[in-house]
Amino acid sequence: MSKLLKFVIGFFVGALAGGIAALLLAPKTGFELRRDIQTDVESWIKEAESAITGNYILLETPSKSEVGDKH
């Protein structure tokens, strides 16, 4: 077998083993994890919508007098 083929096989076996280990050792149930992901995605969508519609706070650059810039 070539080195590349051995590497590819090892990569996929390692990825499969890591995925199985992650599922078995996860601190949350699948339902809780899906719910958390859904909540996060919904909040990101709301933030994006508010940014697109212009409902966001604009940061103003301070004037020269506020910064204390002397000429």
Could you explain how this protein is built, in words?
This protein has about 70 residues and is mostly helical. It has a domain at about 10-50. It has three helices and no strands. The N and C termini lie far apart (about 75 Å).
Number of strands: 0
Low-pLDDT parts are none
Order of helices and strands: HHH
* Largest sheet descriptor: none
What is the straight-line distance between the termini?
A: 74 Å
Mean pLDDT: 81
Using only C-alpha atoms, the radius of gyration works out to 25 Å
Shape: elongated
Helix content: over 70%
SS field, number of helical segments: 3
Summarize it.
With 71 residues, the chain is an all-alpha fold. The chain is built from three helices and no strands.
List keywords for this structure.
3 helices
Set out the fold topology.
Layout: H1 3-25, H2 30-53, H3 64-67
